[in-house]
Design a protein that fits this description.
heterodimer, A: mainly alpha, 14 helices, elongated, B: 10 helices, 80% helix
């Protein structure tokens, strides 16, 4: 069992590392491309906010991944699985479970899921195929659940209700991201871009846009994140605190706006507007990193949390909350993956992404980050990248972008459809093989 | 994995403005051509015609480049069909300029002194029409930034209305010019009349193509 734990830590960390290496570039790329940030600054900010999101708001989704996809209670059912290692009396903290017990098999399955997901991410990274880290781990967990439970209790092994919610989330999140970006861009378009005096308009509106982002982030941190520090706050106070921080930030921004000689030429005004949005985009880039951390850390440490629970308590499916240390491990993994590998991708993304001017980037990033964070608060795992793609499409539909390659979008979405059954099948195979070898 | 950066297709709007500028430089050679005709400088006319043809060809290359990089799967901020029609019409401007130049080099001829003033008036109007169209096209960058709406779009739509007006005025001037030509038919002779008529038609086509280009630009702005 100890070997299993060690391997789990390794693979969970690898998974987090790969998530950091793969996904974070999309958040920071635009800001580096527009030279609003240097690469070093981008990596530092991304690290802070990814970790922050993972640590402060990542618990909910991690919990869902741990016990919301495959019901662990089945593994506690003595009719299906032996609950105590051969020769022991009753399961409990003093009796470490072995691989032939229900909880032990659960842990093994989670490890297999991690192994599959890591291998899958490694392979697709090599081949340059865009995939969703969320889809891969969920598919993998389903795979082991099916392999372990279907022979015993048939298809009710799958938590259809929970899976249904997650699947709906996968469909809704890119659409919602698109809708929100669309709305945000329409607002910016109407009040700034199509205003007779865009310069004045953006000076007036920018602090409110900044405030909006801050309200959402602070609110989410206060509502979900304080649990890690054993603090609590009621909703109204949290809202008031968020508004306060946002107001301060808005005032700060207003003071910082340098007095610009008003130019009549529309071209110059637009240049100034985009300059303001370049700075605002730094904020939304951090916002995306925060949201991403909050939702995707679960892909790495959700299984780990389940395994740790088995190791510590001998049972699974308890209602104990996710331990902060688990989230910290995940957050650290993501940060290291970003710092050691992901930074290279930031530059390439940034160079190619010039089509998305800062005003557009702001809308897309805001829309995506808000939806992802919302789903994290709802404890549902979704694909951050998929949501971002939806958000970009939303801006495109509002005639904000010159051209979007729909062929690429089709390829991305079809890759994701294949991912689920593929990772499930591979995990099932690995699980059955390991189960056969070790029990 | 960089799906975000591969999401964007190449923007056609930059190349469209490039094409407009090339067409404009082609059309700018039309006035020297006409002045050479009036002055009877036939060598100069030949040289100018070569330059116009070369520039028209360069415009064709830009046009082909745009068409090549506009696959059906691109979702554009404007209707792809309208964009291609616009491009075609803008290219027709350069074609008309070339036709004008070529026609005048077929035969050494002189413009009747009594026609010169009207001729210049007609020419000015045609070139003004084209100039307006090109200036509208050059706003494409700002139009995209404003997402094809607001005061910028209104301003361009006004320019487009002006193009229509100018084209109509060009038509009227052409008719006056043709009538004048026929009052001088005995002095000109049938062959001169034929060639002059052809050259007027080419100038008329230049103005028409400018108007059509502007109208297609209007469609691009209004539709998505």
């Amino acid at each position: 069992m100890i070997t299993l734990l060690v391997f789990s830590l390794i693979f969970a960390f690898c998974m987090a590392w790969m998530i950091g290496a793969n996904d974070v570039a999309n958040a920071m790329g635009t800001s580096v491309g527009s030279k609003a940030l240097t690469l070093k600054q981008a990596v530092l900010l991304a690290a802070i906010f990814e970790f922050g999101g993972a640590f402060l708001v990542g618990g909910g989704v991690t919990d869902t991944v741990r016990k919301g996809i495959i019901n662990p209670d089945h593994f506690m059912d003595a009719n299906l699985f032996p609950q105590a290692p051969a020769g022991a009396a009753t399961p409990g903290p003093s009796v470490k479970p072995t691989l032939d017990t229900g909880p032990g098999l659960f842990a093994l399955g989670m490890l297999c899921a991690l192994i599959t997901a890591v291998l899958w991410l490694f392979l697709t990274n090599r081949l340059g195929i865009p995939v969703s880290t969320t889809h891969s781990i969920v598919g993998a967990i389903i795979g082991f659940g099916l392999a372990a439970l279907v022979p015993k209790i048939g298809w009710q092994a799958i938590e259809w209700a929970s899976l249904g919610k997650i699947s709906i989330g996968w469909v809704v999140s890119p659409v919602a991201g698109g809708v929100l970006s669309f709305i945000m861009f329409v607002i910016i378009r109407r009040y700034i871009l199509r205003s007779p005096t865009p310069l004045e308009a953006v000076r007036t509106l920018a602090p409110y846009l900044l405030g909006l982002v801050i309200v959402v982030v602070v609110l989410s941190v206060l509502v979900k994140g304080l649990k890690n520090f054993h603090l609590e706050i009621d909703l109204w106070s949290a809202f008031a605190a968020a508004l306060l921080v946002a107001t301060l930030a808005g005032i700060f921004m207003r003071m910082m706006s340098r007095s610009h000689p008003p130019s009549e030429r529309l071209e110059d005004q637009f240049f100034y507007v985009e300059g303001v949005f370049r700075r605002l985009q730094i904020v939304t880039a951090c916002y995306v990193a925060f949201a991403h951390g909050s939702n995707d850390v679960a892909n790495a440490v959700g299984p780990l949390a389940g395994i740790l629970e088995v190791w510590k308590t001998g049972v699974v499916g308890s209602t104990a909350p996710i331990q902060s240390i688990v989230l910290a491990i995940g957050g650290l993994g993501i940060v290291l993956g970003l710092a050691m590998w992901g930074y290279r991708v930031i530059e390439t993304v940034g160079k190619k992404i010039t089509e998305m001017t800062p005003s557009r980037g702001f809308c897309a990033e805001f829309g995506a980050a808000t939806i992802v964070l919302l789903f994290s608060m709802m404890k549902l795992p979704i694909s951050t990248t998929q949501t971002l793609v939806g958000a970009v499409l939303g801006v495109g539909l509002a005639r904000g972008l010159a051209s979007i390659d729909m062929g690429v979008i089709r390829k991305i979405f079809s890759a994701w459809i294949i991912e689920l059954p593929l990772t499930a099948a591979v995990t099932a195979t690995i699980f059955l093989a390991l189960q056969f070898i070790f029990t | 994995m960089k799906p975000l950066s591969s999401l964007f297709g190449r923007s056609p709007f930059g190349p469209l403005v490039e094409h407009a500028k090339k067409v404009s430089s082609c059309v700018q050679l039309v006035r020297p051509m006409a002045e050479a005709l009036i002055a009877g400088e036939y060598h100069k006319m030949e040289e100018l015609q070569n330059r116009i043809s070369k520039t028209e060809h360069e415009a064709d290359l830009i046009k082909n480049g745009i068409r090549e990089h506009l696959p059906k799967q691109f979702f554009l901020a404007v209707s792809q069909r309208d964009l291609l029609h616009f491009l075609h019409q803008q290219d027709e401007i350069a074609d008309a300029a070339e036709d004008f130049a070529v026609i005048l080099t077929f035969r050494e001829m002189k413009l009747h002194p009594k026609m010169v003033e009207m001729y210049r008036e007609f020419l000015d109007k045609v070139l003004a029409t084209c100039e307006q169209t090109v200036s509208a096209t050059e706003e494409l960058g700002l139009l995209l930034e404003a997402s094809f709406g607001g005061p910028e779009a209104d301003k361009v739509l006004e320019i487009i209305d002006d193009v229509s007006r100018k084209e109509w005025e060009a038509d009227r001037l052409q008719r006056k010019l043709i009538k004048k030509m026929f009052t001088l038919e005995d002095e000109l002779g049938p062959v001169n009349i034929m060639i002059l008529s052809e050259s007027f038609k080419a100038l008329d086509a230049l103005a028409d193509a400018s108007e059509n280009t502007a109208n297609n630009l209007r469609l691009m702005i209004l539709k998505g």
